[in-house]
Specification:
heterodimer; A: 529 residues; mainly alpha; three-stranded antiparallel β-sheet; 18 helices; elongated; B: alpha+beta; Rieske Iron-sulfur Protein; 4 helices
Chain lengths: 529, 188
């Protein structure tokens, strides 16, 4: 792609160096003469923004490590000390904390860009997979780093995530204890998390080098999705891409600075200013915003599927949501790279973006909260007033026939004149049946806006009747269908996976794409439309 | 002499497709692989719980000051444990639901059994506090069943600590305990 090197050493020293370590030649070929498609839009500038973010995180992180104390007794206070006492700590710590959010903002834009323009398709599969590896490492680093300030959210996020591994059958508990270095999140956990949090960014640097190498080997994709064919299709990286990247980096830094200087805590959670307490769970645990969609997928599974219980199911889907990205190059069957020429795919993509944002919203809500208003919870009450009650103990022949046996006995009592029968199972094969007869049957309906309110109403009504004249009340609860955050998350999760596993594979085979321009130059002049 | 030896061994071995060199390769490779595994093991195993962490800590709890309707949360081996003094109504609710449709069926009596196998007292329920979903500490006396409710992902437990609703797969784990006297227990 890059073609033969055009580097010309200008001075005696660079000529001397070039035959010993051609590092200037490498830099020149990679970042100066490198031909870049001339039709790149601003979505293509986030690679540079991400490089800047990585450098910012590493530099601020190294500085913070000089003042941070990775011990459960000192960690929280040491972070506060950095913010209050350490020279410039008030600036450097928020840059690091806000920087994590900025890093993820940029990486999501970068990933959606790749999705829309088909940057994962041949010959860029390895480039895409390396990107997915970087993203996974970023998630791991962010999670480890979030636990270091040892606030309530730090502690409980670490608890929830390490317990995810406990869901793995057979070896889950052993892996979890190995990772925590104990039976609960404690000092050993904090120490190793600090060590690994310091290590992973350098692994990211290594994979970024591979990512850029793969990019320069396969060449950049572009909005038209067609390969450069003639010289007029490309421009040299410097100054064209360099200047554009610098410009967008400055714009991005304005946003970055806005958060750092005016609302350094806006993206964090106030509970993390409470020191970690293993005995008190915050009423509402949420991860940082950039992991909310995955958190929503994790919580969406509240039912068992065969041998897979709800917990393992949620864990599988959450990791599956990232794993599916790795195989995306082979799931999308369309031969057209850019969705610019795939009108139907464009709409599914737009829905996908909305679904991802909606999943993020769900991740921040309480799971049982209603998404849309629902009718009241109602219960029908039946009781007999002023009757006489008779009690009878029934013993079934076996545990298997017990329920049917009790029901038959209750039926007998009804035929004998009982107006209401209460079955109270006392052991696997025994039940006490209470029947009332000879009174007047009463009915009432109570309602409440949720189950708690309904139970309170039922309790109130029962108390007003008095146990003396009314031995028991039959309650028939009618729960309306409530469209909860969990249900909404289930639908969104289904679409997330449908997009990758159903829509992209099938659509590529069925759709009719618009005419793709032959060359990049034509796509700019509009000749092909 | 050396040449003769080489020829003598090579000749019959060649017919079987194996040479002395193959054997050396495999042997050296095997030693190298075992060596790599043995070298790696200490670096992997060092992350496991250390001896001081593993040492079985026991915790003694005095129940006398615990009123009906209250619970205390104590730590045992770094993990929180609920000690709950149940009211008669809560005990009755727990026993009534012994045969309800349960996700993880267990009778209330089976959840009170002491570490030595002896029956417990219905008034005192001792269970590990970690929600079996992802380890949060559920809120006391909340939810539809008035046992515990986990605020993290909405799992609800009844007054016997059994899972009744939500994503958690299992009942709250039992903590091994024994009565030392009528009003004190040892956990662990």
């Amino acid at each position: 792609m890059a073609g033969p090197s055009t580097y010309q050493p200008a001075s005696g020293f660079t000529r001397w160096l070039d035959t010993r370590l051609p590092i200037l030649r490498l830099a020149h070929d990679s970042f100066v003469a490198y031909p870049t498609p001339r039709n790149l839009n601003y979505w293509w500038t986030f690679g540079a923004v991400l490089s800047m973010c990585l450098v910012v995180q590493i530099v601020t992180g190294i500085v913070l490590a000089m003042h941070y104390a990775p011990s459960i007794h000192d960690a929280f206070a040491s972070v506060q000390r950095i913010r209050r006492d350490v020279p410039w700590g008030w600036l450097i710590q928020p840059i690091h904390a806000v920087g994590a959010s900025m890093f993820f903002l940029a990486v999501y834009i970068h990933m959606f860009r790749g999705l829309y323009y088909g940057s994962y398709k041949a010959p860029r599969e390895v480039l895409w997979i390396l990107g997915c590896v970087i993203y996974l490492l970023m998630v791991a680093t962010a999670f480890l780093g979030y636990s270091l300030p040892w606030g309530q959210m730090s502690f409980w996020a670490a608890t929830v995530i390490t317990n995810l591994l406990g869901a793995v059958p057979v070896v889950g508990t052993a892996i979890r204890d190995w990772l925590m270095g104990g039976f609960a999140i404690d000092n050993p956990t904090l120490n190793r998390f600090f060590s690994l949090h310091y290590l992973l960014p350098f692994l990211i640097v290594g994979v970024v080098v591979l990512h850029v190498w793969a990019l320069h080997e396969a060449g950049q994709n572009n909005p038209a999705g067609v390969d450069p064919k003639e010289k007029g299709d490309t421009v040299p990286f410097t100054p064209h891409a360099t200047m554009k990247d610098l410009f967008i980096t400055v714009v991005f830094l304005l946003l970055f600075g806005l958060f750092v200087f005016y609302m350094p805590d806006a993206l964090g959670h106030p509970d993390n200013y409470i020191p970690a307490d293993p005995l008190v769970t915050p009423t509402h645990i949420v991860p940082e915003w950039y992991l909310l969609p995955f958190y929503a997928i994790l919580r969406a599974i509240d039912f068992n599927v065969g041998p897979i219980d709800s917990k393992l199911g949620g864990v599988i889907l959450m990791f599956g949501a990232i794993a599916v990205l790795f195989v995306l190059p082979w799931l999308d069957t369309s031969r057209v790279r850019s969705m610019r020429y795939r009108p139907i795919a464009q709409q599914f993509f737009l829905i996908f973006v909305v679904v991802c944002i909606a999943l993020g919203w769900c991740g921040a809500q309480q799971p049982a909260a209603p998404v849309i208003p629902h009718p009241a919870f109602k219960a029908d009450l039946r009781w007999v007033e002023g009757g006489t009650s008779a009690t009878r103990t029934v013993t079934a022949t076996s545990e298997r026939d017990a329920v049917a046996g009790f029901e038959a006995a209750a039926q007998e009592m009804r035929q004998a004149g009982a107006q209401l029968v209460l079955v109270n199972r006392t052991s696997p094969t025994q039940a006490t049946l209470t029947g009332v007869s000879g009174g007047t049957e009463q009915r009432a309906t109570v309602q409440g806006r949720d189950l708690d309110a309904l139970e309170a109403e039922i309790g109130k009504r029962k108390a007003s009747l008095g146990a003396a004249s009314v031995p028991f009340v039959e309650v028939d609860r009618k729960e309306p269908f409530v469209f909860t955050v969990t249900r909404f998350s289930q639908i969104l999760t289904a679409y997330y996976f449908l997009f990758f596993l159903g829509i992209l594979p099938l659509l590529g085979l069925r759709e009719t794409a618009s005419r793709v321009p032959d060359t990049i130059a034509k796509s700019i002049r509009g000749g092909a439309h | 002499m050396a040449e003769t030896t080489a020829n003598e061994t090579a000749a019959p071995a060649a017919s079987a497709g194996e040479t002395r060199r193959d054997f050396i390769f495999i042997a050296a490779g095997a030693v190298g692989a075992v060596g790599a595994a043995l070298t790696a093991w200490p670096f992997i195993d060092q992350m496991n719980p250390a001896a001081d962490t593993r040492a079985m800590a026991t915790t003694e709890v005095d129940l006398a000051s615990l009123q009906a309707g209250q619970q205390i949360v104590i730590t045992w081996q770094g993990k929180p444990v609920f000690v709950r003094h149940r009211t008669p109504a809560e005990i009755e609710a727990a026993q009534r639901d012994d045969y309800a449709a349960l996700k993880d069926p267990a009778t209330d009596a089976s959840r009170l059994v002491q570490a030595n196998g002896a029956a417990g007292k219905p008034a005192f329920l001792i269970v590990q506090a970690a929600c079996t979903h992802l380890g949060c500490i559920p809120t006391f006396a909340a939810g539809d069943y008035k046992g515990w409710m986990c605020a993290c992902h909405g799992s609800q437990y009844d007054t016997s600590g059994r899972i009744r609703r939500g994503p958690a797969p299992l009942n709250l784990a039992l903590a091994p305990y024994t009565y030392l006297t009528d009003t004190s227990i040892r956990i662990g």
